[in-house]
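Progress note, sequence design subtask.
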């Protein structure tokens, strides 16, 4: 009987030692195709790395078109559609995976961060331009105001050079620390790669469609940095 690779993936990839289940918040605004695509592709890369990952989408039914169909995905990943009012990372939503990537609407981030059971670990995606940095600056301040002990990480996306990402992250980190004394963690960068946009249109993970693309290698690095941070926190 034919079997999906996800059925046997644990035989070949050791499970990441993260301790108890972790929930990572990754805000996605209404109609934000890019962040939705990055979130989904990242959940696949995390699962490829050995930590079964469930992606939980939130928001209005209008946004359902941003995401692939719910259910089991590539390499043991899973996508679940939820209402904004549902508990973050609940077992009913996520079928008890090791890692949950929960995507609340960015428009209500302050409320989401202060909700009972909200993630204490967040990943924010920022463009390197001034407008993008200001936007994520406000997101970081909203999370820090609701959760002074939150772990906030940032990935700079849409860059062409490492120096560009480094400068953008340093500018953002200094501004956030100055305003609310919160320290940001760096989760690398995502390059500006046409293959990512093609994967968005095809609704197939870039790691499987274009395994040698620069965006695939960058996503794998982001997943690795995130998992390393989670492992360190579990020790």
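Output:
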């Amino acid at each position: 009987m034919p079997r999906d690779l996800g059925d046997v993936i644990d035989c070949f990839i050791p499970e990441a030692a993260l301790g108890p289940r972790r929930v990572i918040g990754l805000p996605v605004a209404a109609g934000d195709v890019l962040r939705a695509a990055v979130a989904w592709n990242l959940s696949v890369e995390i699962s490829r790395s050995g930590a079964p990952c469930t992606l939980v989408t939130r928001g209005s039914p209008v946004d359902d078109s941003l995401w692939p169909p719910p259910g089991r995905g590539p390499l043991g990943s899973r996508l679940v559609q939820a209402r904004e009012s549902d508990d973050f990372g609940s077992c009913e939503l996520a079928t008890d995976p090791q890692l949950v990537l929960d995507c609340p609407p960015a428009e209500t981030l302050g409320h989401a961060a202060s909700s009972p059971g909200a993630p204490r670990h967040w990943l924010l995606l920022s463009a390197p331009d001034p407008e993008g940095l200001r936007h994520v600056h406000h997101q970081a301040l909203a999370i820090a105001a609701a959760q002074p002990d939150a772990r906030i990480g940032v990935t700079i996306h849409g860059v062409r050079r490492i120096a560009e990402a480094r400068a953008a992250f340093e500018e953002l980190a200094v501004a956030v620390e100055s305003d609310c004394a919160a320290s940001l963690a760096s989760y690398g960068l995502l390059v500006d790669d046409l293959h990512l946009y093609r994967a968005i249109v095809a609704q197939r993970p870039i790691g499987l469609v274009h395994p040698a693309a620069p965006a695939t290698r960058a996503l794998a690095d982001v997943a690795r940095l995130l998992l390393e941070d989670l492992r360190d926190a579990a020790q």
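The beta strands are 22-25, 53-57, 71-72, 78-81, 99-103, 121-126, 151-159, 184-191. Work on this subtask will continue into the next period as scheduled.
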